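Supplementary Methods. Inverse-folding protocol.

Structures were first reduced to a discrete structure-token string of length 324. This string, shown here, constituted the complete conditioning input.
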């Protein structure tokens, strides 16, 4: 039989090798490697009876605000299946493991995302879920902006007082292993820059099509305008996450000034990209899109096991981008 269980320290090297396998794209293949030696999440892993490490998924249980109370609500993410082994019955075995882990330490619900356009995942997880699998309830769209950093004045400070009680907002902000963090607050808008480059490494695995021979000319143009360049194959993309972002949603001008300072802070640290996640329909999204960026869309889901009441309709939950 295949071996699906929670990961142990002796699994770390194989998990890291699996996570680093390239993900095919259009003109660029990327590798989303991460270190598992100091991982805060529960790591669910699947090994075939032949001995090959086949799949990974992550389950974390942060303490979040929910209707004015602190509750444990799960995040599900980090799913990777070895490209050669996709199409097998691994999903059913993985969900059987998740159910055992959930029943040993249950939570009311989980948050998860599926990249827009991943029709296979939506068909398997949302439209044709098997009995006994958790049910995925749509809860909006997450817009992730990869913003180009640029020189700008900024003034970092200490963490603000932790009193924000927006639904699904973290009750605490624990540091991850090797994380560097800087806080900025501007006229009622606050958040931090999270540098997780010690444990997460996004690399360019390969270029395809015209980019293979146009990259040099493109980089020369980018260098003239002091904008991020396309790294050589095998090199890292240097980026940081906006974390623990909070505001009352009514300060677009202040948000624009705050984001400009964040981009300046990221640039001063040698980062080319700043990753910001906002729900579609957020009043600040049009402001953020005025800055140079690449946009990625994902569907948000609240995930519950059968037998639990269906969630009531409400707006998209707050998502901590680095936890997805």
């Amino acid at each position: 039989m295949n071996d699906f269980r929670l990961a142990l320290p002796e699994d770390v090297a194989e998990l890291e090798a699996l996570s680093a396998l390239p993900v095919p794209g259009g003109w660029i293949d990327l590798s989303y490697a991460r270190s598992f030696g100091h991982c805060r999440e529960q790591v669910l892993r699947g090994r075939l009876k032949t001995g090959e490490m086949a799949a990974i998924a992550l389950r974390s249980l942060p303490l979040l605000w929910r209707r004015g109370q602190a509750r444990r609500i799960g995040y599900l993410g980090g799913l990777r299946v070895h490209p050669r082994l996709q199409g097998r019955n691994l999903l059913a075995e993985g969900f059987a493991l998740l159910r055992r882990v959930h029943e040993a330490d249950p939570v009311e619900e989980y948050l998860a995302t599926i990249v827009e356009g991943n029709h296979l995942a939506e068909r398997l997880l949302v439209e044709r879920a098997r009995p006994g699998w958790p049910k995925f309830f749509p809860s909006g769209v997450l817009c992730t902006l990869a913003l180009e950093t640029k020189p700008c004045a900024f003034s970092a400070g200490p963490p603000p007082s932790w009193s924000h009680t927006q639904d699904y907002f973290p009750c605490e902000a624990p540091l991850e292993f090797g994380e560097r963090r800087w806080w900025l607050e501007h006229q009622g808008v606050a958040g931090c820059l999270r540098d997780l480059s010690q444990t997460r490494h996004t690399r360019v695995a390969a270029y395809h099509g015209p980019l293979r021979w146009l990259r040099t000319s493109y980089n020369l143009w980018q260098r003239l305008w002091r904008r991020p360049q396309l790294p050589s194959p095998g090199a890292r993309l240097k980026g940081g996450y906006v974390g623990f972002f909070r505001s009352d949603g009514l300060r677009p001008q202040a948000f624009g000034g705050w984001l400009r300072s964040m981009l300046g802070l990221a640039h001063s640290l040698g980062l080319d990209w700043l990753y910001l996640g906002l729900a579609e329909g957020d009043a600040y999204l049009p402001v953020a899109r005025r800055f140079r960026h690449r946009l990625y869309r994902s569907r948000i889901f609240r995930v519950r096991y059968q037998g639990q009441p269906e969630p009531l309709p409400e707006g998209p939950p707050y998502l901590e981008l680095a936890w997805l």
